[in-house]
Write a structure and sequence with these properties.
With 323 residues, this protein is of the alpha/beta class. It folds into two domains: 230 residues, Aldolase class I (TIM Barrel, Alpha-Beta Barrel), CATH 3.20.20; 69 residues. The protein has 14 helices and nine strands. The two termini are 31 Å apart. The structure holds flavin mononucleotide.
């Protein structure tokens, strides 16, 4: 696969602990995107936001921090902060579909008012010390909104526009709108990347074949289900089960080191496993044990059992399952 491969931002999952462990075990990611930072007028990052993007917590990987805000001043403050930490690119979140975000006119909410969006973009592009990319959808309610949005986007020199070809109303359901994606690609003045529903090598190859001009393929759920997929996409052998095991252990140990609340660690690892269980066929009984674990010890023994008694069966096309 000759496309650049990026790891989508997944709030609550792909933080620095996850990214560092992923990069140490699996090759193939050209860029990781941080879950969004939400700067406000206090112009201070929360400890959690800062720890997540500190370069020493992201060694040896290309990280592109993502920001969610509709305020040019807060965006520019954050961009300056990122520049001082050594970053050269900032990603703007124009796609978050969550009700609380959209109702404040942020994320996908910014797509509802193209004029306000244009004014915002004008301000940030005029003064930003970093290259700006964005991750967006094809509209809030309907694809009919796309031409007007494209007319706005195309006035600005985006480093890259990553498109999840669904509307906000579709959230992550329904079929990605390939025609709408074609419209974004056609005559685009900036690189355009695909994001959505790539769960295996075949899916990625189909995107590359159908849209040869695509700059990069960004993958979220496909990677948190099968973190070794990045190797396969770069033509490397699929890692052994032991590598997956060591990866899961490193993520767990990372949380145990950084978090005081051990119950919270176990809770968090259940979320991690609600995706990764998908690479073990017929693992219902093991999934249930992980879900029921009430302590780190119970968690570790349920995961040991899974790795000892089941094999990883990566499927060309698997039913997408969660705990
Ligand atoms: C739990 C979860 C958290 C997410 N967090 C973010 C986020 O912080 N920023 C963002 O732009 N997208 C976020 N997304 C959207 C993903 O980056 C991605 O666009 C979406 O999962 C579709 O891609 P996929 O089909 O490859 O998973 C999130 C999605 C999920 C399911």
């Amino acid at each position: 696969m000759d496309k650049l491969i990026s790891f989508a931002p997944m709030e609550g999952i792909t933080n620095h602990i996850y990214r560092k462990a992923h990069a140490a075990h699996f090759q193939g990611i050209d860029a990781y995107y941080s879950p969004f930072i939400a700067p406000n007028s206090s112009h201070k990052l929360t400890t959690r936001e800062l720890v997540d993007i500190l370069p020493e917590n992201n060694p040896g990987i290309r990280l592109i921090p993502q920001v969610l805000t509709r305020s040019p001043a807060d965006f520019l403050w954050c961009a300056e902060k990122l520049r001082s930490l050594g970053y050269d690119e900032i990603n703007l979140n124009l796609g978050c579909p969550s009700g609380t975000v959209v109702s404040k006119g942020k994320g996908a909410g910014q797509l509802s008012d193209p004029e306000a969006l244009e004014a915002f973009l004008k301000e940030i592009f005029k003064n930003c010390p970093l290259a700006i990319s964005a991750k967006t959808r094809i509209g809030l309610e309907s694809r009919a909104e796309l031409p007007r949005l494209l007319a706005v986007f195309r006035k600005f020199p985006f480093q890259e526009l990553i498109v999840h070809p669904r509307t906000r109303v579709m959230q992550y359901k329904g079929t990605p709108d390939e025609e709408a994606f074609s419209l974004v690609l056609e005559g685009s003045p900036f690189p355009v990347s695909w994001n959505g529903d790539v769960f295996c090598e075949k899916d990625a190859l189909e995107v590359a074949e159908r849209f040869p001009e695509t700059h990069a393929v960004m993958i979220g759920r496909g990677f948190i289900t099968d973190p070794g997929l990045s190797c396969v996409l770069k033509g490397l052998p699929r890692p052994e089960k032991a590598v997956y095991r060591s990866f899961a252990q490193e993520v767990f140990e990372g949380y145990m080191r950084e978090w005081n609340d051990k119950k919270a660690v176990v809770f968090h690892m259940k979320e991690f496993w609600s995706y990764m269980i998908g690479i073990f066929p017929d693992a219902g009984k093991y999934a249930k044990r992980i879900r029921k674990a009430a302590s780190p010890e119970e968690y570790l023994s349920s995961v040991s059992e899974l790795f000892e008694e089941r094999d990883i069966v990566p499927r060309e096309e698997w039913a997408f399952r969660r705990l």
